[in-house]
Amino acid sequence: MVATALRIDPGSAVAPYEQIRTQIAALAAAGHLAAGARLPTVRQLADELGLAVNTVARAYRELEQAGLVQTRGRHGTFVTHRAAGVPAEAEALAAQYAARIRELGIDPARALALARAALGISE
To answer: Between vectors from CA 20 to CA 15 and to CA 21, what angle results, nearest 5°?
Structure first.
């Protein structure tokens, strides 16, 4: 989803890493990338965009320094609640809900339906 949403303008005066950085930040701020969303690996995104690995790595580093993404070693790079404009407590509660739903053996579609009903959202 991320790679298809990103557009790199090779003729732009703005460096490609900066184009990636600003677009990912904007996608998160607009809610198109939720808190906790996993970004493609550096290598994956570089391949999809036709860029050098170091270009994407620099964009990710700058996003991480700004607190907009968090790299969790081999697990990947994830959008933070700060980038998505979601309170940390809401993110923690969602994680607790997901963990408890898995413990109960409820499938994801049913869990989402339960959450929508609790929020008063009709399908």
So the answer is: 95
